[in-house]
Design brief:
The protein is of the alpha+beta class and 89 residues long. 22% of the residues lie in helices and 17% in strands.
Length: 89
């Protein structure tokens, strides 16, 4: 959320901004498969972890741990919690 209360969102095409070669369809598709769009908080499943929806539309169940596979890490959720604590004026 931006400081003015605007909700920012991901959109298709943003992956071209970080691709080494934005004209390489395979490279762009790989980037889409690595950008998480929705991340389920751990605690709903055993073993502890959550489902992650990626920009290309696939989902994966990732196990949670302090040093696990991003974004299912302690550092990621600490960042999310700090962002949730920020309130618009």
């Amino acid at each position: 959320m931006a400081g003015d209360g605007t909700v920012l969102r991901l959109r298709e095409g943003v992956e071209h901004l970080i691709a080494a070669d934005p004209n390489d369809p395979a490279g762009v598709a790989k980037i889409q498969s690595e950008i998480p769009v929705l991340v389920e908080r751990p605690g709903n499943h055993e073993p502890e972890g959550g489902n992650v929806l990626f920009m290309d539309g696939h989902t994966e169940y990732l196990r949670y741990s302090d040093m696990g596979e991003w974004p299912m890490t302690k550092a990621f959720f600490e960042t999310v919690e700090s962002l949730e604590a920020v309130k618009a004026p």
